[in-house]
Amino acid sequence: MVSKIELYEKESQEFKPFKHFISRIQVMRKESSYGAEVASKWTDILNQTLVDETYPVIHPIGQETFSLYAEFTTGVFEYTLDIDGATTFIKEKNIKPIKTSPSNIIEAVDQGNINKDPNRIKPNHKNPVMVLQSRYLTNNKPYCINGNHRIFEAYRNNDEQIEVYVFKDLEFVPFFYDVLSKATYFLEIDYHNVVNDKRYLLHNENGAFANEFK
Question: What backbone torsions phi and psi does residue 162 show, to the nearest 5 degrees?
Fold first, then answer.
């Protein structure tokens, strides 16, 4: 499959988060009484918390981050993940990796994240191989956010196993580098719950991730 990374990098620069939030809020407000309540909460968050947030985010020098792109009808949004922070989280929580065959995880590698010029590859193994699998960020497919080359090399070398840290929905919330990334993720969960009349990842019928946003 042809990678869209280069296209997404360009298009994400033009994304208007405020416009996207308003679009989602308007749909939710008209969908149901529950949707109207959730929309009201997101309107408050947008006007009180997010209005002064900078986008696109400025990636820090000396800190490893990763850009994960999401395609919406309003454009392409750049979620920014703190890879160094994720490694610290893994150590603090004593999270264990899974051991799997590279052939089972190679689909998580986006070819756009593989540098084909070996002279430009700078090995950096201070952070482990990490994969996200999210209904809202990756279409429920595994997607590597760190260690793409290690998976690729293990697959090419026919290695028997590779250690991978896999994170499902909500497990990677601590990895978001910026406020807008976290807010957009929570907004998307609420939006899909409203339009599909579901309560995925919620513990009660009247709950919403707008309530969890801090």
Answer: -145, 145
